[in-house]
Specification:
This protein is an alpha+beta fold. The protein is 20% helix and 35% strand. The protein has a six-stranded antiparallel beta sheet.
């Protein structure tokens, strides 16, 4: 991975989960800002870190997750050297589709740089086929009502 990432200590169920990302020179494209593909990677990195921080070990061994859909809105550009916060939280779920929302903000001023909505599908680690999750995973990684958590600083534009 070509990005420095640090995880937050917030591990409460239904609490937003954050990782810190430092933009590196190799993340910058010919336009002088972070290439869009890196935002997608940070969205995925935050989701994986959240899963590893909260999921019971036996579920981590039994389940893998695949993306069904990504939607990203780019608001402002990140530049080399910026420290960013990728903040993720769970949304609604169906039988085998789990919504996850993510905001990427610049740490220095709280500016929202990107917002993402991802739908994930759990698959069996052995068969690689979609599978329903148990009640504990559903409790941790889905929310009955979609809510946006309070911003961690800075005003959104």
């Amino acid at each position: 991975m070509n990005t420095t990432i640090g995880e937050s200590a917030n591990t409460g169920i239904h609490e937003p989960f954050e990782i810190t990302v430092r933009v590196r020179p190799e993340d910058i494209d010919e336009l002088g800002h972070v290439n869009n593909v890196h935002y997608l990677r940070w969205v995925q990195d935050a989701a994986v870190a959240h899963w590893k921080a909260l999921a019971p070990r036996e579920d981590q061994d039994r389940l893998l997750w695949v993306v069904l859909r990504h939607e990203i809105d780019y608001k402002h550009a990140a530049k080399a050297g910026d420290e960013l916060i990728a903040r993720t939280w769970v949304g609604e779920s169906t039988r085998i589709a789990f919504e996850r929302l993510t905001e990427i903000r610049r740490s220095a001023d709280g500016q929202v740089l990107a917002k993402a909505r991802t739908l994930w599908c759990p698959i069996d680690a052995k068969t690689r086929r979609p599978v329903q999750v148990g009640p504990r995973v559903r409790e941790i990684f889905s929310s009955p009502v979609r809510q946006k958590p309070e911003a961690s600083g800075g005003e959104e534009t």
